[in-house]
Each structure stands twice: as structure tokens, then as C-alpha cells.
Design a protein that fits this description.
By secondary structure, the protein is an alpha/beta fold. It is built from three helices and nine strands. The strands form two sheets. It has a six-stranded mixed β-sheet with strand order 4-3-2-5-6-7, sandwiched between helices. A three-stranded antiparallel β-sheet has the order 1-9-8. The chain starts with 8 loop residues before the first strand and ends with a strand.
């Protein structure tokens, strides 16, 4: 099953493949022993993944609270700069809580390293990371995801929440621009 693929884009992970992997990840998360769980979705890129993963987590019996953390790695191009800024913070106190950070891609790792440090600094009992995609060769910060959807080739990907200069977030699959 695939949505319409626009010209100039080819499919890397189709809808069916993503849906199956998301279901598997939820199964693993349900075995992780979380207590008092708060899921923190990092905006904007994770919004579709988070929405699907949360519903899959529900099917596996989890009932987390949900918060949103809007971060920006400054710059308008296709590569992230080093500086992470909080554009919109979460509203909950995470002290003593288990926190699961959800993001679309782990690339340099700066975004998730920042978010994880922030949660631990604020007293989270546990702060783990689930990333839909991992670009393994690209790390600049010292962080690995606890859970990964797919290993991603070193290409710029779009769709399923991810953008290229604000376009293509709406694609129901993950694609690469030719
Ligand atoms: P990091 O801080 O370098 O790990 O970058 C992670 C963020 O950069 C992700 O949350 C994405 O928003 C963005 N990003 C990195 N690679 C891509 C890509 O191939 N397509 C779209 N966004 C990307
Ligand atoms: Mg992002």
C-alpha cells in the first residue's frame, strides 16, 4: 500500500512497512517496564510518527501522558547548525517520571542529546529515546537511541512528518528527493 508518490521523489519506506515497524516498536516499549510514563514528542518532525506510535502503544496496553517539545536547530538550510533552541516547552513537571522522547531522525544527535539532558536535569527518573530513523555515520553528539525504527541511508529524507524546507511533511510514506 502506497500513497501517490509525487514526481521527483522515490519511496524509501512505504506505509505498510512503517506501520508494521511502528507496531513492533510499541510491543517492545510495552515490555520496557515504564512507570508513570510521559511521552515527549519533539516537534515538528515527529508528529506523525508520535501519533501512530501512541495509538500502537495504546493497543499494547500503555497509557502514557503526552507532551510536546518544540525544538529548533537554527538555520534554514538542509543541515542543522549546532545550536538548539526551545521554541515551545512541555507543560508537565517530569521530576520522578519516566520520560520517552520521540523524534523522527537521529542524525548529529544534537537535538536528542539536548532534549535528554534537559529531562534529566529536571529530575526525570528515566529518559529514553525512540527515533524512527537513525543515520548511524553522522553522530556529532554522544547519544544513541534506545529504540530505532529503521537504519537510514545517508540521504535527505522527507515525508511522514519530515520536511525539506517546509515541504512534504504530509506524505504518508518516507521518501528521498531524487
Ligand atoms: P540532529 O540534531 O542532527 O540529530 O538532527 C535531527 C533533526 O534534524 C531531526 O529531528 C530532523 O528534524 C532533522 N533532519 C535530519 N536529517 C533529516 C532528513 O534527512 N530529512 C528531514 N529532516 C532531517
Ligand atoms: Mg526534528
Amino acid at each position: 500500500m502506497t500513497g501517490t508518490v509525487p514526481p521527483g521523489i522515490h519511496t524509501l519506506f512505504d506505509e505498510q512497512t512503517i506501520a508494521e515497524r511502528v507496531e513492533d516498536l510499541a510491543g517492545v516499549l510495552a515490555q520496557a517496564g515504564y512507570e508513570s510514563l510521559i511521552v515527549v514528542a519533539i516537534l515538528k518532525g515527529s508528529f506523525i510518527f508520535a501519533a501512530d506510535l501512541l495509538r500502537a502503544m495504546h493497543r499494547k496496553g500503555l497509557a502514557p501522558e503526552v507532551e510536546f517539545l518544540h525544538l529548533s536547530s537554527y538555520g534554514s538550510g538542509l543541515t542543522s547548525s549546532g545550536t538548539i533552541t526551545v521554541l515551545r516547552d512541555i507543560e508537565r513537571d517530569v521530576r520522578g517520571r519516566d520520560v520517552l522522547l520521540i523524534d523522527d531522525i537521529l542524525e548529529s544527535g544534537r537535538t536528542l542529546a539536548f532534549a535528554k539532558a534537559l529531562m534529566l536535569e529536571r529530575g526525570a527518573a528515566r529518559a529514553e529515546v525512540v527515533a524512527l530513523l537513525d543515520k548511524p555515520g553522522k553522530r556529532k553528539a554522544e547519544i544513541e537511541a534506545d529504540y530505532v525504527g529503521f537504519s537510514c541511508p545517508d540521504k535527505f529524507v522527507v515525508g511522514y512528518g519530515m520536511d525539506a524546507r517546509s515541504a512534504w511533511r504530509q506524505l504518508p510514506f518516507i521518501g528521498v528527493i531524487d
